[in-house]
Amino acid sequence: MRRIDVTRARSWLGAIAVTTAVTFWSTGCTDGGAPATPTASGDRQSQVAERGESVMPFDLDRTTHHFVKTADGGVQTVVADDRRDIRQVDLIQQHLRHEADSFRRGDFTDPASIHGSDMPGLAVLRDSAGKITLEYEMTGGGARITYTTSEPAIVEALHAWFDAQVSDHGVHATPGVPSSTTPEPGPTTSR
């Protein structure tokens, strides 16, 4: 191959690689093919934050929700952005303990009052009492609830519910595993 043909071929290959990468990332397929969770409008997020103040005792601006989908359910973790903020940690732990107790009974009144009664997944979750195991744990920076079920419809509902929360909470929530800046779980107490 002549030198000019090699240069032209490399240029074309580079252009193809860039185009493929841009297409891949712009479609949200960075996690093995699943599209990224859409983000609610700023107005919707503001409304959710305002309604959340009457349900969640901790400060959304000083805490972060993490939602991790699993094959048999998922894990919801809420942590104080500063694990030394004992007040926020205590409020998170109290709130998630209460929520886990309510959710076990199929009572999802609090999320409905924040996100709306037509929140994705909520109708199925309300009917899931006795069909889903909820495990509450305190962590060094907050608390977590682990949801486990063998019923595919409930897993699908949990995942839709997690996606809706990530979308509605905006910068106050993340899908997936907590980042390296998130405090590691400390000693846990299971309930």
Notable features of this structure?
disordered C terminus; 17% strand; globular; 191 residues; five-stranded mixed beta sheet; 6 helices; 44% helix; 5 strands
Overview of the molecule:
A 5-stranded mixed β-sheet has the order 3-4-2-1-5, covered by helices on one side. The protein is of the alpha+beta class and 191 residues long. It has 2 domains: 1-36; 39-175, no CATH class. Residues 9-35 and 179-191 have low confidence and may be disordered. The protein is built from 6 helices and 5 strands; from the N terminus they run H-H-E-E-H-H-H-E-E-H-E. It is globular. Strand 3 (133-139) and strand 4 (142-148) form a beta hairpin. The protein has helices at residues 3-26, 42-52, 86-104, 109-115, 122-126, 152-169; strands at 63-70, 73-80, 133-139, 142-148, 173-175.
Describe the structure concisely:
Helices cover 44% and strands 17% of the residues. The protein is α+β, with helices and mostly antiparallel strands.
